[in-house]
Design goal:
The complex is a heterodimer.
Chain A lengths: L4 H16 L21 H72 L1 H11 L40 H15 L1 H4 L2
Chain B lengths: L18 H5 L31 H29 L1 H12 E6 L6 E2 L5 E13 L7 H12 L3 H8 L6 E7 L1 H10 L4 E10 L7 H4 L11 H5 L1 H5 L3 E6 L12 E4 L6 E4 L3 H17 L4 E8 L5 E10 L2 E4 L4 H4 L9 H10 L8 E4 L2 E4 L2 E4 L7 E4 H7 L2 H11 L1 H10 L28 H4 L10 H12 L3 E3 L4 E5 L5 E3 L5 E3 L3 H16 L14 E10 L6 E14 L6 E8 L6 H19 L35 H4 L6
Helix pairs in contact in B: 4-5, 4-6, 10-19, 12-14, 12-18, 13-18
The chains are: A mainly alpha, B alpha+beta.
């Protein structure tokens, strides 16, 4: 299409449109009069258009930047959220594992503390035996090692109540010790 | 107009026609008449046109197809998004939203010092999704030796058309680790709490069992289910197909609440020693089983409750807590109540002397002493120390059936103890109005009445506690999840006999140990008070007694001067049969340990004296129930144990 052909084509199109389109209704009588048409100076037109377009471009650029920033922010936030979610899951798993470990260790301690295990270990590993008899001593009133005190009727203790002989008591105690701690009294 | 499109031809290497040309708008045959010819000549058409397939028609056809397609899509969208939206939302959620139940950890059971008797620990359960198992046989072969399961059974489980099966529940940690190491497809794990008894079988009959779903099945576990169970929680999470939580997805959580802990009155070490001593005696006396209980005199707290039976030649924990659920005829231990009642009613004094023959006729039946003796004048202390059947019947006759019955009930017979243990028996005590002629011959010597071991111990504890009955107690406190401890209220008490009567009775019971039928219950340094019993065993489901079968027992307390601990030991069909020989030594062994454990010092003030028993009268084993005693209602209708 050339510049010279343009006016005639426009005129043809305008004529065709006028032929096909219904005639416009005349405006109301009291409608304000339009200013008379004039030829617009191309330079003026360009200048005005340039001034009008400068603003939208800036706004679009800012909008695009903002949009991109927002989008990037959203993506970043989502990535962080996801990362933290995985971290949370990991920490929760770890906490559950540690809690389970604590419970297992607690059960293990309870089993190690059970009387059955302790007695078995004492008798089988350490050679301990239950005491054949129990002797009750009351606080000494004299020199160290002497015992004295009231014993109930029928008491058959061999230290203190039945006699205050220090040597006899010691000898008896050593004898009892040897009976209880057999493994220690072996030559 | 046809909507058929012309055969497709490639346009590569050929200049593209303008849209106007492509539509064929200038074809002579299609140009309407009277229209102006084209301004420029058109190039010749490269290919022939198919008749009836003009571009316009194809365009309309294509548009129609698109419209129909769009309508279909719209309709489907409407159906999915509007009409059936709820269903599709639900389907979508079901694929990604999971509601995971969080089981509540069961509360622990502690002894009186906070030592674990039962606790829950998490264990791995091996589960599988058979639909994801590619080779059930190979997986079963790999798992069978680790899980110690039958391979065919595992293969069968792994071949099922299900999404979930249990392969092995609550496996040990090392087993779980081995299964994890296999990395089998479709095999995974689930953590479940498991009940652990650190002491093994210690107090098992009393504590009871817990089921596979962590619910109490028997014993204290079921009695205190509400306290121990806790409250299960749940968690709603959105998960991706890999099982990871979706960030920002739906998340709703109601955490589970752990059950409260239960603090018992038991002492773990004493419980062990009690069971050990009882088990040793069961073995040495070839008994069928036995029971032993230790009680704190002032508080009524049960410090040890042992229940053992013999199965396949081995001493094992009894199936249930017999001390509260089973009843037995107490025999001579019941004479304490007869004598205490007569003392309280001031019918006798400890030094009252009775002419005691070797036999006595009650109604139409003759009751005999176990060991013949000539008719002699015996003090009440002699009668108690020798466990005289005839002397006790004479005292019972003085007392009368109404008062005897009243005192037996006052001492706690014929009703439950208030512990609330599942299946607890209240014992069997006849209404005095229904006594037969011989009842006043059997009741004073502990026949024709059935009690639980705890009831009989509580009766002896009443004497030890200066005549005040203290209800037995098993739970000391509860501890909630915040660690707040709530002690249970003290046991109910009631005055049964006066302190004076209790002291006199204590002194007479001490004679039983000093020179009477229970010299084997002696503890060096302490004065023991108690009474032996050797009662015949009723037939099960029939009238009469089982030949040669006896229940031997000893009930007592120590120190007699200032009682701190009471205990009872009962052996089922031991050999020899005498309570003074088989039960009394076990009492001494248990009490000796308990005195040391609870740091009870020997008393400094000797026991107030009562008229001593003449040594020649203390036969030692005279407590055996009348061999030919008539079968009573209790004997003919043995109590049914739950």
């Amino acid at each position: 299409m050339t510049a010279t052909a343009q006016p005639s084509a426009r005129a043809t199109a305008t004529a065709a449109a006028a032929a096909t389109l219904p005639a416009r209704k005349p405006g109301p009588a009291h409608a304000p009069k339009r200013p008379p048409l004039r030829v617009v100076d191309p330079n003026e037109k360009v200048k005005k258009a340039g001034r009008r377009r400068a603003h939208p471009r800036l706004l679009v650029a800012i909008g695009v930047l903002l949009g991109a920033g927002l989008l990037f922010g959203l993506v970043t936030a989502h990535v962080l959220l996801t990362q933290n979610q995985f971290r949370l899951q990991k920490v929760q798993r770890q906490a559950a594992q540690e809690q389970a470990r604590y419970e297992r260790l607690r059960a293990e301690v309870a089993e190690l503390e059970s009387p059955g295990r302790i007695v078995a270990a004492a008798q089988e590993r350490l050679g301990m035996v239950p005491p054949a008899s129990v002797k009750y001593l009351t606080p000494a009133t004299g020199k160290h090692g002497k015992t004295a005190g009231a014993q109930p009727p029928g008491a058959t203790t061999n230290a203190g109540a039945k006699g205050n002989d220090h040597d006899d008591a010691d000898e008896q105690a050593m004898s009892d010790w040897a009976a209880v701690k057999r493994q220690l009294s072996r030559p | 107009m046809t909507t058929k499109a012309p055969p497709r031809r490639t346009t590569a290497g050929r200049p593209r026609t303008t849209p106007q040309k492509a539509r064929g708008g200038n074809h002579p045959s299609r140009r309407p008449a009277g229209t102006a010819p084209p301004r420029r000549p058109q190039p010749p058409r490269p290919r022939p046109r198919v008749a009836g397939a003009s571009p316009k028609h194809r365009l309309i056809g294509l548009l129609a197809v698109m419209i129909v397609g769009a309508l279909l899509v719209s309709a489907r969208l409407t159906q999915v998004q509007i009409v059936s939206s709820d269903r599709y939302i639900a389907v979508g959620e079901s694929q990604r939203v999971r509601k995971v139940e969080l089981p509540a950890e069961r509360g622990s059971i502690f002894d009186r010092d906070g030592r674990d008797l039962a606790l829950s620990v998490p264990r791995e359960t091996v589960i599988a999704n058979p639909r994801l198992v590619s080779d059930p046989l190979a997986s079963a072969q790999a798992l069978a030796p680790i899980l110690n399961e039958d391979m065919a059974k595992l293969q069968d489980l792994l071949s099922k058309d299900k999404a979930f099966v249990y392969l092995a529940r609550r496996v040990p940690d090392d087993v779980a680790a081995q299964v994890k190491a296999l990395g089998l497809p479709g095999v995974s794990f689930k953590t479940e709490p498991t009940r652990i008894l650190p002491g093994g079988d210690l107090a098992l009959s009393l504590l009871g069992m817990v089921g596979t779903d962590n619910e109490g099945l028997s014993g204290l576990e079921v009695q205190h289910e509400k306290i121990l169970r806790g409250k299960p929680g749940y968690e709603v999470v959105e998960r991706d197909p890999a099982g990871n939580d979706i960030a920002g997805g739906v998340r709703e959580a109601e955490p589970s609440v752990r059950g409260d802990d239960l603090v018992l009155t038991l002492d773990r070490a004493l419980q062990y020693e009690t069971e050990r001593a009882l088990a040793a005696q069961i073995v040495s006396s070839n008994a069928k089983g036995g029971m032993a209980i230790v009680m704190h005199v002032k508080t009524g707290e049960l410090l040890a409750v042992a229940n053992l039976s013999v199965e396949e030649g081995k001493v094992v924990p009894a199936q249930k807590n017999m001390t509260l659920t089973n009843v037995y005829e107490p025999g001579s231990v019941n004479k304490m109540i007869t004598v205490s009642a007569a003392l309280e009613e001031k019918l006798i004094e400890p030094d009252t002397r009775l002419i005691v023959p070797s036999t006595i006729k009650v109604a139409d039946h003759v009751f005999k002493e176990h060991d013949f003796h000539p008719t002699e004048e015996w003090s009440i202390t002699d009668i108690v120390a020798n466990s005289s059947n005839v002397g006790s019947i004479m005292i019972g006759q003085q007392l009368g059936k109404t008062k005897l019955d009243r005192y037996m009930r006052e001492f706690g017979f014929g009703r439950k103890t208030g512990i609330g243990y599942p299946g607890e028996s209240g014992g069997i005590l006849l209404d005095p109005a229904k006594y037969s002629g011989t009842s006043m011959g059997t009741m004073p010597i502990g026949q024709g009445v059935a009690v639980t071991a705890v009831q009989m111990l509580a009766a002896y504890n009443t004497v030890a506690n200066g005549g005040v009955y203290v209800a037995p107690k098993l739970v000391k406190a509860t501890i909630d999840t915040d660690g707040d401890r709530r002690d249970t209220p003290p046991s109910e008490t009631k005055k049964v006999i006066s302190a004076k009567t209790a002291k006199e009775m204590t002194a007479m019971l001490a004679e039983v140990i000093r020179v009477g039928t229970a010299t084997r219950a002696k503890i060096d340094g302490y004065t023991v008070a108690g009474k032996t019993g050797t009662a015949r065993k009723p037939l099960e489901g029939a009238r009469g007694y089982k030949a040669g079968a006896y229940v031997s027992s000893f009930a007592g307390f120590v120190p007699a001067e200032r009682p701190e601990l009471s205990a009872i030991v009962i052996l089922d069909e031991p050999t020899p049969i005498f309570g003074g020989i088989v039960a009394a030594p076990v009492f001494a062994q248990i009490a000796r340990y308990a005195l040391r454990e609870f740091r009870v010092p020997p008393p400094e003030v000797p026991l107030a004296s009562v008229p001593k028993t003449s040594p020649k009268d203390a036969a030692g084993v005279g407590e055996v129930g009348a061999e030919d005693a008539p079968a009573t209602t209790v004997a003919s209708n043995p109590p049914k144990t739950p």
